[in-house]
Every structure is written in structure tokens, then in C-alpha cells.
Amino acid sequence: MKTRISKSLMVVVAAGCFSALAVEPSEARACGGEWAPEVYIDHRIQGVARAEKMFEAGKVDQAAATVIRMMPHIATLKASRSTLVERSQRMLAVAVARADGALPVAEEVPDYARGTWLGAKDADRQTNLSWAVSALRQVDELKKDDPSVQTELAEVLAKVPEHKKEARTILESLAQRDLVSTPEGYAVLAELRKEAGDAKGQKVALERCAAMAKSAAVCRSTEAQS
Amino acid sequence: MFSARPCSKLVAVVLSCWLLGACRNESRERAPSEGPATSERARLTPPPAPLPVAVQVAGNAAHGKELMRKYECNRCHDGTGVPPAPLEQHCVHCHQDILAGKFKASASKLAKWQKNVTSVRDIPSLAATGSRFRADWIERFLLDPHDLRPALAQSMPRLKISASDARDIAAYLTATGDSAAPSVQPSGDVTQGRELFETKGCGTCHRFSGVGELATVPRADGPVDQQRAVSLAPDLRYARERFRTDRIVRWILAPQSLKPDTLMTPSPVSEREAAEIAHFILTAPLAAPVPKPVPARLPPLPRKVAFEEVNERVLMKTCRHCHGNPDVALGDGGPGNTGGFGFAPRRLNLSSYSGVAAGLLDEQQQRASVFAKTSDGTPRLVAALLARHAEEAGKPNPEVRGMPLGLPALPAEDIQLVETWIAQGRPK
Q: Which of B45, B124, B286, B344 is least enclosed by beta carbons within 10 angstroms?
């Protein structure tokens, strides 16, 4: 008896599915005669904006962690896909550079999303820095002549020995036109000038860094070594 | 058939009108430089006789309509003949929605914004422009906008517009202005006209600078939205250069017959009285306009000024409207970033520290710092803010466009704040 009922039920369900497939309802009929749009809220819009506020406030690692949590596959995405991806990659790439390839985000990013971001090994750090360079190059290409992106790109390039020369070229060009857009950019320029033996230039860049920076710590690392 | 003689007479009349207009403008411009010892008699210069007909300009009206889109007149004005800009780009509708609490935003944000919305709340509609105004005046106003409405913040932007484009827009706006029949000409006695002006309550909404103190018997039957009517009411000293003399009497008697959406209400006067009031408005001797003083440039502050303060007090409240970040606004960074009001994209983003530091595209489309010094050593950003004060005083700087564009100049204290921040090395 029980088997017969369940068989009948299966037949009814199958018939229902078939009719649903065979007679495609119009959008208007889909909801009992009324059309109702499916509301999709992309929470990343607010999330990225919040991360940017953290970034502006100097909480760079927190901003990076927020980005990774929201977009665990961010390293594989293309900046041209959307401005959300582009803005997120900018923050993450700069955070990676400032952390020398090892983001201190273990407490804020779950295991499944960590990838190489923690930079536990040398190879991971290299991978992260290479990604940061590549990501900012893409953003720079998209933005075309945006000094704020160029400053960030130079900051990242300066972390990779083979790109240091390029980093200095970019920063010198921006500095000449008073377009270095962050104190960190001047700190990097000071470091690069020091490495090139330009003590006077280093001093000038450090002075600009000190004038712009909210915290003296931004310029201190370079200063201490000078 | 036209004979050669009436044609040549017409040309002579038009030429005379043009010359008279030119002379009048010259006297108006020269007058402020006259010393304080000038006698009252000398200052009250009787104007030339009003122009008998609307002075048309030979512009291309069809091109003028295209230019309405190019210069985005529909971002502020209704009645342009082209659809209004979408809400997110419409300065006036956006502000009106915020003030009415209709804008889609949280209650806390609305409350915050409502306090800041002090400008661009009301802008005159351009509907039926041609049935009231002279094309030559429109052309001049587009090239050299100035304050017309004493109770409304001056908000006509100083566009980057050529004389030929201004002429075409004027031709477009006045192309359909001749459908109404001409009304009686202004005439009568100026003193009588003045008395009627005072007793019939014209001063309830209008100011008439340059004619001395006017008594006002307030009108009980004024417009429903009195506050809005007052803010849109022009200073009548400009009527003689703006208004068509063949329409002004009709305008006084039955304004809605010329412009159905006007807030101006019919005046309770006879046709003869209207003609006398119009005669007074168009011919009363005017004292030279009192130039708005340019506030003194304040010295840098002795205390530390950080970006946060500049951002809160100046950039966020004012500059960001036009110089925004296109990445957070669906690609539209505002007229001063991605382009608008006829301006090419300048890509200036004043919404963040690094955005400000990244500068703008200059006239040669090269990146330049907003802190670069002008010829007198003033940082470019400060020079633009100071230039707006000069514009409001009727002395525009041809080298520097005043900012904020189409908004009141910043208080001297705000400019001082920006200048101090720059002088201190732009601390974050």
C-alpha cells in the first residue's frame, strides 16, 4: 500500500516537473500573476568602501584581511572585471608590499582563504610580491596616467630587486612634478636615493615624507638607516 | 514686397540699438571707478531710451539645441527643450529631493546633508525664454554670468564657451518667442510709475537697486510659495537689458500668459498703470552698481592643519560634488573629473588625500599638481578659490576659473585653512 502511494506521488511529481518544463511560464505568471524582481544585494560594495576607510586611516593589514575575506579568489581575478576588484587589488597589493610579502592576517582570514598571503616561506613572499607587481601594473594600465596608482606601483616595485630601477624612475618623474601622492611614496624614494648614493636627494624626500605623514613612523625606517 | 528703404531703416534702427547698448554697458562698467565725491546728479545717469523691439542675434538655433546637451544646461535648468538629466546628475532635483527628505539615503545622512544644502535649490526654468528676454542679453550673460537674483546664491557657472556657441544657444532659446502678440509699449511718467511700483506691492518680491530707497506696500495676493518667488525674483535694474520691451507690460499684467510655470502673479493694475510701471523699470535713472567687496586674503594660521579638517570643512562639503571619484560613482566622477558642463575631463579627484595629491590634467592634457605655483606664487588650488571671490565682485580673472564653479565663493576663513594646509606641507 505504502509503495503504491509513493509510486503515485512520484508520478504526480514527475508530471508536474514535465509540465513545468514543457510549458514555460512567462515572467508575469511566474509569481502568481505578478512580476517580482529578484533582489540581489552585493555586500562587497559596502565592504570595499569600509576597507578603503581602514586603508586611509592607516589600518592597511585590516583592510587587506577584509578584502581577502570578501574575495578569497582575488588573486585570480582581473582588475578590468569590475572597479570593486580593481579597488580591492590596489589595497591588497600595497598592503603586501608594506608587509614585505607576508601579511599578518592569520587571525582575521580563515584557513581556506589564506593561500600564500601569510608569506610563511620565502617562496610565498616572492609569489605575493610578484602578484602585487602584476596587479598594480594592470590597474596602472587601466587608469592611464594616474599618479596615485603610479606611486603605489613604484612602492611595490621597490620591494623587488630587479624592479628597483623602474620604481625610482617613476618616483623621480612624479616628484619633479610634485605628484607623489603618499608619504610612503616619498619614504620609498628616500630609500632608493640613498641606495643610489644621493644623500641630498634622500634628505629632501624624507623632509617631504615627514611633512605629509600623519605618523613619523612612516618615514622612520628609512631615516634610521641613513 | 520689401523695398530697399524700409530695410535700410531697419538696419539703421538695429545698428543704433546695438550702439546704444554698447554705450550703456560701457558707462555701467566705468561707473564703479568714479570717486566718492561724484555728485548724486552725476551718478544718476539717465539711461538711453529702451529698445523698441527684441534684438535678435543671427545664431544657429538647431546647433544651439545641440549645445544645450553639450553644456548640460539640463543638469540645473528645467524647460531646456531636452530631457532633464538623471537624478544623480541633476544638481537642483537632487538638492530638492534631499531637502524634501525624498532622496534615497539613511535618515542620518539626509539630516547631515540637509544642513549643507544651501545653494542650487532653485534655478529659473528656461521655458518661454524667447517670449520675454532679448537674445543679445542671453548671449552676453552666457559669456559673462553675474548675479541677477539678490535672494538667491549666484549659481550660473562660468562656462568655457565661445561667442559663437553663446550666440547659437541664445538663438535656440529665443527661436520660439514670437507666438504671443506684442503688448502695449511702456510709456508714461517715471515718477508716476515709481509711485505705482511702490503702492502695488512690486517690492514684495523684487529689489530694484540703483533707484534709491523704495517704499513697499506688501501684496496680500502674492504667490503661494512666497519664499521661492522672492528667491527667484530678479533685481529689476537688469530688466532694461534683459527684457523685451514689447512684452514687459503683458508680463506685468498676465505673466502666466507668457510663461505658464512662473511664480510671478498678475499685478492688480490697469494696462495704463502697467505701462507706467514698465516705463519706470526701464528708464529710471540708475546709480552705479555697488561692487561686492573682495574679502581680504587671510594670513596662514599659526596652528597645525591636517587633511582631515580641510576635507571635512571644504572638500567634502563642496568640491567633491564635481571632483569626485568615478570608481565609486558608476564611472561618473562629476564635471571636474570625468567632464561635464562642456568641460573636458580634468580627472581631478578631491575625495581622498591621494586623489588631491594626484593633481589634474591641465589645458595641455598633461598631469599637473594642484599645488603648483601660479605667476604670483599662489598655489593653483588657492588661486582658483580666490578667483571666485573676484568673479563675484565682477572682476573675473581670465587666467583662472573661479572655484567652486557655480557656487558661492568659500568664506575667507576656509581658503585660509586650505592655504595653511598647503603651506605646512599638506599633512595627512
A: B344
Q: Given this model, what pLDDT does residue A16 score?
A: 57
C-alpha B266/C-alpha B12 separation (Å) is: 36
Of B208, B70, B73, B84, nearest in space to B138 by CA: B73
- Cα dist from B334 to A221, B91, B360, whole Å: 39, 11, 13
Residue of B352, B369, B424 lying closest to A179 (CB–CB): B369
Identity of the residue in A83, A86, A145 whose CB atom sits nearest the CB atom of B367: A145
Answer yes or no: is pLDDT of B81 > 50. yes
Residue B326 burial class via C-beta count within 10 angstroms: exposed 0-12, middle 13-18, buried 19 and up? middle
Q: Closest to A178 (Cβ–Cβ): which among B347, B353, B371?
A: B371
- Residue A115 CA to residue A105 CA, distance in Å, equals 12
pLDDT digits (tens, 9 = 90+) for A95-138: 999 999 999 999 999 999 999 999 999 999 999 999 999 999 99
Check whether A179 has a pLDDT greater than 70.
yes
Q: Is the pLDDT of residue B78 over 60?
A: yes
Grid cell at residue B197: 511700483
Q: Could you give the angle at the alpha carbon of B163 between the alpha carbons of B160 and B168, nearest 5°? A: 100
Close Cβ partners of B97 (under 8 Å, ≥ 6 residues apart): B87, B103
A211 inside 8 A of chain B by CB: yes
**Structure pTM?**
0.80
User: Tell me, what's the pLDDT at B220?
Assistant: 73
Best of B312, B316, B327 to disrupt the A interface by mutation (most A CBs within 10 Å)? B327
Nearest CA in chain A to B331: A83
pLDDT score of A90 more than 90: yes
CB pairs under 8 A between A and B: 60
Contact A73, A112 (CB under 8 A): no
Name, in order, each residue with C-beta under 8 angstroms of B194's C-beta and a sequence gap of 6 or more. Answer: B211, B214, B280, B284
CA B51 to CA B244: how far, in whole Å? 8
Q: Is the pLDDT of residue B208 over 60?
A: yes
Residue A87: φ, ψ to 5°? -65, -40
Residue showing cell 534702427 = B13
Instruction: Please state, in angstroms and rounded to a whole number, the distance separating the CA atoms of residues B120 and B99.
Output: 11
Interface test with A, best of B304, B351, B367 (most A CBs within 10 A): B367
Positive or negative, the CA dihedral B102, B104, B107, B112 is negative
Q: What is the mean predicted confidence (pLDDT) over B293-308?
A: 96
Report whether pLDDT(A184) > 90.
yes
ipTM of the complex: 0.79
Compute and round to an integer the Cα radius of gyration of chain B: 23
